[in-house]
Amino acid sequence: MPGEILEKARAHAGGPRGPVGSWGGGGSAGPDGGIAADPRRLGLWLFLGTVTMLFVGFTSAYLVRRASADWRPLAIPALLWWNTAAIVASSGALEVARRRLRGWAPVGAVPWVFATGILGVLFAVGQVLAWRALAARGFYLETSPHNSFFYVLTGTHLVHLAGGLVWFGVVLSRVRRLAYVPGEDGLGLFATYWHFLAGLWLYLLVLLFVV
Amino acid sequence: MAHAAEAQAGEAHVHAPQAFIWRYVFSKDHKVIAIQYYVTAMFMALIAGLLAMLVRLQLAWPERDNAWLGNLLPMGFQSGVMNPEFYAMLFTMHGTIMVFFVLSTAPVSGFGNLLIPLQAGARDMAFPFLNGLSFWTFLCGCVVILSSFFVASGAAAAGWTSYPPLSALKGAIPGSDMGQTLWIVAMVFFIASFTMGGLNFVTTILNLRAKGLTMFRMPLTMWSMFLVAILGLLAFPALTAASLLLVFDRHFGTSFFLPAGLVLNNVPLMGPDGAFLHQGGSPLLWQHLFWFLGHPEVYILMLPALGFTSDIIATFARKPIFGYRSMVLAMVAIAGLSFVVWGHHMFVSGMSPYLGMAFAVGTILIAVPSAVKVFNWLATLYRSRIRFTTAMLWALGVVSLFISGGLSGILLGQGALDIHLHDTMFVVAHFHLIMAGAALFGVFGATAYWFPKMFGRLMNEPLGKAHFWFTFVTYYGTFFPMHYIGIAGHLRRIYDPYQYEFLAPLKGINEFITVSAFILGLSQILFFVNFFWSAFKGKKAGENPWDANGLEWTTSSPPPHGNWPGAIPVVHRWPYEYSNPAAPRDHVMQHEPPFAGEPRH
Q1: A152, B125: Cβ pair inside 8 Å?
Q2: Measured distance between the N- and C-terminal CA atoms of chain A, rounded to whole angstroms
Q3: pLDDT class for B330, splitting at 50, 70, 90?
């Protein structure tokens, strides 16, 4: 029985090989010694590679600019600690949901999926509030280079997080329809992206306020 | 469109979409997308080429009254004489369009899309929807960059490198206004499109190869596409980051690239409080970020040409490519080194000589894998019985340009020499020979060679050869003399060289170059005529018109939707098995099982 469900799930996902979407897994057989990965997983990792390079570019700009004479460090807005807690907790909740789903407890996964999304939205709202708090104290985008980098880097992160929330909407509707097959790691792809965003946020926090 | 594959399409696993709009417009079929990319890129090439003609006209006869052109382009001419601002727009847009929208697009997005699934033995790319989306994103970029000619303040004019402060201060020159904004928007579209393509390329090559097709059995074209896609994924984000920071400097008052003390039209850029609006930014930061992309980018243009050339030379020399593994490793080395040499564009920026030395050493190291490639091509040609088809002529042209352009690269890579040659026509000569020329010749060669897989027909050979010889002679005629005037101190991007007494004697050479360039431009008519005539009326091609070995030659021309009507062939060998005396004929195709007595390899 479980094997049958798995087969159905694979067919539904387009199979591990072949162009995603239109060929129904009828594509090529595996090459000798080739990498037998899910193409979507590989594509996602490549995408994360290119996002990483984007932030590497920002980082080098930040380090160069920080060495100039007009650099005045910005104190960390206290709200950011709460935001950090929210995004880390969101990642944690998603891990719990993922484990439930893999452990044949799809119904038990639903509240944790909800928690993931709520915490993610809380983080996004918190970021906007943090910007507004800074602006209220007179720290605008152009006030000093550290401010500029703070707004640009957190903004770019937030844009990527917004994309994640759109994806989350798809995940949520599938979870509620119980469209993920128990035992399968249905949330795996989304989790990769979501954890990446949490990790990226921790990195930005360290870059902007610790190093 | 000359697609005659309707009959076979039904036999593929999945039926091709029937409505015209889904079949040929919003298609997800990699072959249709490839042709869309290719034709768009060639249209952009036509425009960028015309811009170059205007640049050449100005450099040869700056004082000439061109009343008829003034009537045609009223925004660029004042009583028949070209505006300096318009001249800057011309070379900026020529460079931008050629580098990104033509020479990154035609070989990579065009032939990459056409060839990767066919050579890999895949039904399509890994993400067909993303592939279609990528093309339409690219087209948006084309529309935006072209539209900048029609805004009141004109197109971007800060050079294709868009160095601040010229690109960051809206009032600096007319081109710094709306034109520069559109330039950035077009870049964002282009980068998004190229990233989607790159994800597809790498995933398809790693995941969807036919059974038996190991990495070291892949055609060198596939290897070049694999490397180019990785370069694009890793290098373009630097330009994204830089462009985003530039947007904030331009529109939101930040100072990432803008230093204090800027003066615009003799008015210091100060706020009401008497402090400078911008403080402490570094224009050099842009240069570093730009060239971190820019140098890998020029290899994105060139590597596919090296791949095409290897495949074409092996086929028409009827010999295995010499040193296949060293060819792969040389391309890997070139791609890897491209990430650590960007500083050689900035020797005159006040860089520490020690750092400059490191960049110089890295740069000159690139000569090693490049020389390996040249020796391997020559060794492949050595004592072979060459079939001089049009495709082969172009491939030999690539080898020629790769050598002559590469040699001047060794000169420019030395900091001490570069201080003299920097920003002169010598640089223009260098990169037009090696990067632009090799890429362009590679595209023409690939077009002649793989045309059957695009349209099911062969291109006209006499017309193709005439096109080659006219282009080859006038290409050298245009760019080779630029070495001399560059050494003599002729600056690039200069509106009127003859305002300086020491450049006045170079007018004769400049006129020669311009006449060459005009003939070069006119010769391209031969190509366009040949392309469209052959696409509809050319001689029908069979499955394998060149007796070549790759998987793309095991299916009909053009291949049906799904690429193979039946099962996908299984691969037993590399694609360079030519003239093996033990084999039954002069070439053994990749899908043919080992013949009697053949050693395993």
Answers
A1: no
A2: 54
A3: very high
Residue B99 has pLDDT above 80, yes or no: yes
Q: Test A53 with B234 for CB contact under 8 angstroms.
A: yes
Residue A105 DSSP one-character state: -
Q: For residue B238, name the pLDDT band (cuts at 50, 70, 90).
A: very high
Contact B112, B225 (CB under 8 A): yes
For B129-187, the pLDDT digits (tens) are 999 999 999 999 999 999 999 999 999 999 999 999 999 999 899 999 999 999 999 99
Contact by Cβ (8 Å): A20, B127 = yes
Average pLDDT, chain B: 94
**Chain A residues 133-192 with a CB less than 8 Å from chain B:** 141-142, 145, 148, 152, 156
Cα(B39)–Cα(B41) distance, rounded to whole angstroms?
Answer: 5
Bond from prior residue into A16 cis (ω within 30 degrees of 0):
no
CA distance B81 to B77: 5
Name the residue of chain B whose CA is nearest to A36's CA. Answer: B207
Question: Is A73 an interface residue toward B (CB < 8 Å)?
Answer: no
Q: Tokens at residue B4, please?
A: 């005659």
Beta strand B263-264 pairing with B81-82: unpaired
Query: What is the distance between the alpha carbons of residues A211 and B228, in angstroms, rounded to a whole number?
Result: 35
pLDDT at residue A33 in the model: 39
Q: If you ran DSSP here, which 8-state letter would residue A119 be given?
A: H
Number of CB atoms found within 10 A of residue B78's CB: 10
CB atoms A50 and B210 under 8 Å: no
pLDDT surpassing 60 at residue A32: no
Q: Return the HEC string of B258-317.
A: CCCCCEECCEECECCCCCECCCCCCHHHHHHHHHHHHHHHHHHHHHHHHHHHHHHHHHHH
B-chain CB neighbours of A148 within 8 Å are 248, 254-256
User: Can you read off the two tokens belonging to residue B354?
Assistant: 């020690």
Contact map slice: A 8-27 vs B, CB within 8 A: 17-24, 26-27
CA distance A79 to A64: 28
Name every residue whose Cβ is closer than 8 Å to that of residue B398 and which is 6 or more positions away in sequence: B305, B306, B308, B309, B438, B441, B442, B445
Tell if the CB–CB gap between B127 and A43 is shorter than 8 Å. Answer: yes
- CB contact (8 A) between residue B121 and residue A28: yes
Q: What pLDDT does B595 receive?
A: 84
Residues 294-353 of B with CB under 8 A from A: none
Q: Which of B207, B255, B278, B601 to mutate to test the interface with A (most CBs of A within 10 A)?
A: B207
